[in-house]
C-alpha cells in the first residue's frame, strides 16, 4: 500500500515537472509577418533544435505548415509535404529569393527536406528577431497541440 502511494506521488511530481510552461519561458508567443499578413502561434524553445540557416548561421524556426500557410495569399500556400514542388511553383513569383530547401535529420528521418520561407519580421517572447527563416513542417510539431512551432535556444 505504501509503495502504491509513493508511486502515485512520484508520478504526479514528474508529470508536473515534465510539462512545458510559459512561466519557465519554454512556451513563448510568436508573431510572424510576411508582407501584410501575420500569424500568431505558440513556440516551444527547444534546446535540441539545432537547425540553422546555412547562409546566415541564424536559428531556423520549424512551424506547422498549416499555420505558416496563412502567410501566403489565398490558394497559394505551398504543400509542406512536397517541398521541392512548392519551391518550383513559388520560387519564381513575388516570393523569389525568400524560399529555400533546408536539409534536416530527425528521429526516424535519415535525410529530409523542409521548405522554408524568410519572413519579414519575427517576434518571439517579446524579442524582435527581425527577418527569420521559418521551415514548414508537414506534420504536427507537438503531440498535444500546446505549441505549433519549435525554436532553438534564444541567445
Protein model, in words:
18% of the residues lie in helices and 38% in strands. The chain is of the alpha+beta class and 155 residues long. Strands 1-2-7-3-6-5 form a 6-stranded mixed β-barrel. Strand 5 and strand 6 form a beta hairpin.
Task: Name a few traits of the molecule.
6-stranded mixed barrel; elongated; about 40% strand; alpha+beta
How many helices? The count is 3
Sheet with most strands: strand arrangement? 1-2-7-3-6-5
Main β-sheet description: 6 strands, mixed, barrel
| Average pLDDT, all residues | 84
**What share of residues is helical?**
10-25%
Q: Approximately what portion of the residues adopt beta-strand conformation?
A: 35-45%
> What's the order of the H and E elements?
HEEEHHEEEE
Model regions low in confidence, pLDDT < 50 over at least 5 residues: 19-24
Structural class: alpha+beta
Radius of gyration: 18 Å
Summed up:
The chain is α+β, with helices and mostly antiparallel strands and 155 residues long.
Secondary-structure blueprint:
Blueprint: H1 2-17, E1 27-34, E2 37-45, E3 61-64, H2 65-68, H3 83-90, E4 99-106, E5 109-124, E6 127-137, E7 149-151
Parallel strand pairs: 2-7, 3-6
Antiparallel strand pairs: 1-2, 1-5, 3-7, 4-5, 5-6
Amino acid at each position: 500500500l505504501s509503495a502504491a502511494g509513493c508511486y502515485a506521488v512520484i508520478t504526479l511530481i514528474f508529470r508536473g515537472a515534465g510539462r512545458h510552461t510559459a512561466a519557465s519561458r519554454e512556451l513563448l508567443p510568436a508573431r510572424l509577418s510576411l508582407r501584410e499578413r501575420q500569424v500568431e502561434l505558440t513556440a516551444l524553445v527547444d534546446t535540441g533544435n539545432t537547425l540553422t540557416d546555412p547562409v546566415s548561421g541564424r536559428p531556423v524556426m520549424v512551424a506547422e505548415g498549416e499555420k505558416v500557410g496563412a502567410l501566403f495569399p489565398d490558394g497559394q500556400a505551398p504543400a509542406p509535404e512536397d517541398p521541392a514542388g512548392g519551391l518550383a511553383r513559388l520560387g519564381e513569383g513575388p516570393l523569389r529569393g525568400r524560399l529555400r530547401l533546408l536539409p534536416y535529420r530527425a528521429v526516424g528521418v535519415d535525410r529530409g527536406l523542409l521548405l522554408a520561407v524568410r519572413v519579414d519580421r519575427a517576434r518571439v517572447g517579446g524579442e524582435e528577431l527581425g527577418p527569420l527563416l521559418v521551415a514548414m513542417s508537414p506534420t504536427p510539431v507537438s503531440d498535444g497541440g500546446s505549441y505549433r512551432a519549435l525554436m532553438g535556444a534564444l541567445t
